[in-house]
Every structure is written in C-alpha cells, then in structure tokens.
Amino acid sequence: MSGIEIGFLSVGSIVLLIYSGLHVGIALSLVSFVSVALQKNSLTLAVKLLTLAAADGIADQTFAVIPLFVLMGLIMSASDVGRDAYDVGDYFLRRIRGGLGLATVGSNAVFAAVTGVSIASAAVFTRVAVPEMLRLGYNPRFAVGTVAGSSVLGMLIPPSILLIIYAILVEESIGMMFFAGIGPGILLSGVYCAGIIGMAYLMPGFVYDRTGRYAAAAAAAAGGTAEPPRNGRTIILKALPLLGLVLIVLGGIYGGIFTPTEAGAVGSAAALLLAIARRRMNLKAFWKVVRETGHITASICFLIIAATMYSRSLALAGVPAEIGEMVRTTTGEFLLVVAIYVLIVLVLGTIIDSVSIILIMVPLFLPVMQGFGADPIWFGILTVIAVEVGLLSPPMGIACFVIKGCLDDPSITLGDVFLGALPFAIMMVLVLALLTAWPHLVYINQWL
Question: Residues 6 or more apart from 278 whose CB is under 8 A from it?
C-alpha cells in the first residue's frame, strides 16, 4: 500500500477503535505506531517516533500553563466562588422575566473567567442554581438546561483549557487565543440571554413550572429556611474577589505584565490565598485538589503525546495535503468546507471528549483551511464552539451527565437534562453560523 492509502486507513481505524470503546489516547498511539511501521517498513523508526513524540510533545515550558490553570479552577470551584457569582447575578436580575436564567448565564460567564473548566461550572451551578430555580417556580428542564448551556462558556471565555491546547497544537500565541475568545464569549452569552428572555415570553410553559410541584418539593428540601438577606454591601463584598482575580489573571496577560504561564501561577496562588482567607481550604481539601489536578493534567498530556504521534504519521503519509487537494478539487466553496468540518465535529462530539476532537481534527483540517486563507485564530474559536456543542449532545454529553450526577432530585431524568439543553445547543449552532458568515466577529472585543 502507498503512504496515502495507509494514512486514510489509519483515520478509519481510529474512528472504528474509538467506537468500539478503546481509549482515545491508546487508539491514536497504536494506529500511529502501526502506520509509521508500515510506511517505512521499520519498527525501529516507529519506536523512535513514539520516543520523540513523548519527548517533544510536552517538553516545552508552555505546557506548564495547563496544570496551573486547572489548579486555579479547581481551587476556585472548592471555594464557593460559583455561589458568590450566582448571588451577585441573582441580586440584579431576579426581577426580570426569566431572571434566574439570566443570572445563571451571567454568573457562569464570570466563573468561566476565573476557572476555564466547563465541567467545574456544570457541577458547581447544578448545586447552586438548580435548587434555587426550582424553589422559585422554574421548570426543572429549563433549570438544568440553563446550567448545561451556560457551563460551556468555561471553554470559550479565557482562561480556557481548550484554547490553551489549540494554541499549543498550532503554535499560536496563547495570549492571542485568549484575547480572541472574549468577543465570541460575550456574543454567546448575549445570545443565551436573548434566547432566555424570548422563551420566557413566547414559551412560558418551558420556562416556568405551572404545577408548583417542584417548587414545593424544593422548599421542603430546604427545610423551610429563609433566604439569606442580600444587600448592596454584601453583594459588593462577594463581587470584589471575583473581579480582583479576573483583573490579576487576564489584566496581567493583556497588560504584558506576565506570560500566560506566569498568569496561571499567580492566579493559582491568589485563588489559594482567597480560599484560605475564606476558610474553605485545609490540608485535606488542598491535597484532594492537587491530586485531581494531577489526574486531569496527566490525561491531557497523554492525549497530546498521542496526538503528536498521530499528526506526524499523517504528515508522513501526506494525508493533510491530499485532503486539501481533494477538497479544492471537489468544491471551491469555502463555506461548504466549513460546514462539512463543523458537521463532522458535531458528530464526533456525541461520542468522544472535547480535547480528543481538537487533537484529531485540527491537524487534518487546519492545512485545508489555511489553503483558503482562513485565519488560524478564527478557526480555533470556531472549533472550540463546535466541540462544546458535543458537551450538550447525546449520547456522550459529558456536561449533561455531570449535571445529572450532581442532582439530588431523582425525578429529573437524564432525558430532561438533554431536552433542557437542546435550545442552548441550537443557540450555539446559531453563533457558529454568525462567526462563519462574519469572521470578524471573533475580534468583536476590539470594537468595544
């Protein structure tokens, strides 16, 4: 077989192995190893590829940014910052129709700016926002759907782990990727808010619980305790630590005070000091956070090593160039190519995780997009949003599974979570269409 045939066969093999249940990192490594061995007829070269991928894949100092931002996000998650963000949003927006939904979106947007982890947002706001929304008469599907939809903001609004991984993979500036994520993050948040207000007026039965059954159950579960008093001074005290941390991390990066890696270290230190000051962190809790950080980082790094092997084996086989030529021969329509790419990513999002999709698809399609003159930063934002739709899509839908796992109410099924998240997934697809039609919206923050 020729190198091209082996390369395309390897792509199909990876999809088949993933569907069969094999871990994505193992599938990428195994297929890449066999592909190089067949192309060069040498096991020695394949072993060397594996060694170089492991050494070069994560040896750069830039990769230190991953565990640092993961650590910062987990510390903030353990420090009740999500609850504070929700209290602030609730204070200002409760009186608007659908106001608690708006508060959830706004709070998640703020929380995203200090964590960058969607799953953490989903877990925190399931415990914070859902009981409060049920108690005040919201439909359970709307409550869990709002949490699921707004949790994906954590992977778009910087600092975002996905933006970091994409930047490293394509050798773009992490700071530039962060900067580009602000505008689309604001745009997606705005579309969510407009959608919630629209549903509250046009589909009140979806937003509000007309039976009152869930409100009564939530109030009984709360033990009839009164809502804690909230005044302007209390809200300001809750908002200041959040705004301070955002200013330290993002202001330091954009102001040129320190690099993204240094920002992760400073942000982690500031988050730890805040957690200690609020008496939310002891040695046992800190060890748990550090251990979870290690698990997450090791998993990501293993995937990056495997993806490095995969991209090198594809390049060796000439697959990216061949796909680019096939696309240009089949169609010269850039929008059609983008639509095909987004559709593939959306389908993959139903079966595998976000990081894996980026590591598999970007090496295949980035050269094709660059052949059309596409901006790699725009392509990265488009990819992250498309990938995040998968967090809300069955059967994988990781965010929906996390929400279901964190719910105390067994009457709210996994199907309810997916149905509640459906309008938000549709809104995300709308934002994808807007960014595709008007790529300059990626840099909307430069207009503000």
Answer: 79, 80
Contact yes or no for 380/172 (Cβ under 8 A) = yes
pLDDT of amino acid 380:
92
pLDDT in tens, 372-392: 888 899 999 999 999 888 778
Question: Is the omega angle on the peptide bond into residue 410 within 30 degrees of 0, that is, cis?
Answer: no
Tell me the C-alpha distance between 242 and 130, whole Å: 21
Query: Rounded to a whole number, what is the distance in angstroms from the first to the last CA of the chain?
Result: 55
- Cβ proximity of 348 and 38 under 8 Å: no
Length of the chain: 448
pLDDT computed for residue 325 by the predictor: 66
| Percent of the chain residues past pLDDT 70, beyond the cut | 82
Burial status of residue 326 (CB atoms within 10 A of its CB: 0-12, 13-18, 19 or more): exposed
DSSP 236-251: HHHHHHHHHHHIIIII
pLDDT exceeds 70 at position 126: yes
Is the CB of residue 361 less than 8 Å from the CB of residue 341?
A: yes
d(CA 37, CA 412): 51
Between CA 288 and CA 319 the distance in angstroms is 43
What pLDDT does residue 89 have?
A: 76
Dist. CA 325–CA 332, nearest whole Å: 11
Strand partners, 208: 138
Whole-number Å distance between alpha carbons of 34 and 24 = 16
- Return the closest-CA partner of residue 156 out of 191, 125, 128: 191
Q: Give dist(CA 131, CA 143) in Å, integer.
A: 9
Q: Closest by alpha carbon to 395, among 17, 19, 110, 81?
A: 19
Local structure of residue 225 (DSSP, 8 states) = P
- Asked if residue 226 has pLDDT above 70, the reply is no
* Average pLDDT over the chain, rounded to an integer: 78
The rounded distance, in Å, linking the Cα atoms of 177 and 362 is: 15
Of 219 and 237, the structure prediction assigns the larger pLDDT to: 237
Give every CB contact of residue 286 below 8 A, 6+ residues apart in sequence.
272
- What sign results for the dihedral spanned by CA atoms 327, 330, 335, 341? negative
The alpha carbons of the chain give a radius of gyration, in whole angstroms, of 22
Q: Which long-range contacts (CB under 8 A, 24 or more apart) does 323-330 make?
A: 323/364, 323/365, 323/367, 323/368, 324/367, 324/368, 324/371, 327/368, 327/371, 328/371
Nearest of 8, 2, 10, 4 to residue 41 by alpha carbon:
2
Mean pLDDT on 132-152: 87
State both tokens at 289.
């956070």
Distance between CA atoms of residues 335 and 120, nearest Å: 34
